[in-house]
Amino acid sequence: MKHIHFIGICGVAMSALATAFHKQGYKVTGSDKGFYPPVSDHLKNTGIPYYPGWHVEKMTEDGDPDLVIVGNVASSDNPEWMYVQIKGIRYLSYPEALSEFFIKDTSIVVSGTYGKTSTSALLSWTLQKLGADPSYMFGGLVDTLDSAYIGKSNLSVMEGDEYKSARWDEKAKFFHYKPTHLVLTALEWDHADIYKTEQAYFEAFEQLITLLPEEGSLVYNADDPNVERLSKNFSGVKVSYGSKNADYTYTNLQAEKSGLTFSIVHKNFTQKISLPLLGEYMAPNITACFALCNRQGFEPESITHAIQNFPGIKRRLEKRYVGDITIIDDIAHSPAKARNTLQTLRNICNGKIFAVFEPNTGNRQVESINSYTNAFGEADEVIIPKLTKIKIDKTASAPPMNEKKLTEVISHSHNNVICIDNDQLLIDHLFSKAEKDDTIVFLGSHGFRGMIEELIKKYD
């Protein structure tokens, strides 16, 4: 097999997978409906050829590809996807490709509603620095570390996403990853477009736990009641982490604009952790990583040294501008994630917080309305921008929420929510309203069409 083509290469995860194959010596090409920084810059710098739109003649310029990785962007009438099926070209979904090429006998899977990207990235970074050379994949961007990599050891680390695997495969991605060790970070109903009820959502994670072998282990967040409840379903080795009464406990937490400091206590040792990352939410993620690495036999001092050099993940409380005001970019695309991010900012910010929020597809569904209650309480003003167009499921009970409906829903529990569906007017509004020591945070997964960059220009 020589040539791998990606239909939908511009996603963070798909581009990471493409890069990993490229570095293994495969010829890699890709297509997508559009290309935006930082992923487009990354593909260009890596030397992977790509093109906008769906063009069979470009995909087959040097003959049919040997394998096609098909992203969820490929609809039933996508000409490249149709050609692949008609010609009988071998194809895999993104999680199927990970299962075939990345998963090792010792398979660490990090899963949960939130915290899984940060934890899997940190775990991949730490194990690499410790010399374990794992194969890994996480859905974020970290300076000096590829987001996907095929290592030489018998160890792998996977971010276990609960979203559906492919258009032809409704089951969660994490069911493909054959976990021997599972990290469970947090559980709160999400992705209402896939999981119509809270029970259905939790049942997917219950099934994931059943995949663990008896000799495997479950590393779980004891502070989360839903995680704590599900952990009781596993009869094998269980390792808890949290802020109190856990096998690995983090204490003396200090979160400031300059960074994070705390200690990890386990049996007969205490390790002090200090690193320049924003967000109290990173303390449990770091503790989970520490616990897993320690369980794999690495010494506490070596783990601590590796963790403290972690540069952080782009779009996770990423400071895009710091001056009289601060501009933050965060991928929080659900009410639960937005609430956690805003609570973190409230603890370290002195001025007002302006939150620009765009939910993902699942959190535009009417089934998710109740999850918005009090989610934005820590923001002084919530702004709903023009929402990115999404495909509408004709079988859904109701159409997805538009800008005005979303504004109305959030207004039920917040007294200052406005809709500005013109990008330039939104930028002008923020520039005129934000004052010294205020924070502007963009929350969402779609990139905001360059609004962050345009706003920064006004302050430069």
TrEMBL record:
GO biological process: cell division; cell wall organization; peptidoglycan biosynthetic process; regulation of cell shape
Record bears the keyword Cell division: yes
Name recorded for this polypeptide: UDP-N-acetylmuramate:L-alanyl-gamma-D-glutamyl-meso-diaminopimelate ligase
Keyword Cell membrane listed: no
Start and end residues of each Mur ligase C-terminal domain: 315-445
Keyword annotations: ATP-binding, Cell cycle, Cell division, Cell shape, Cell wall biogenesis/degradation, Ligase, Nucleotide-binding, Peptidoglycan synthesis
Domain Mur ligase N-terminal catalytic: 3-101
Annotated Mur ligase central domain residues: 110-292
GO molecular function: acid-amino acid ligase activity; ATP binding
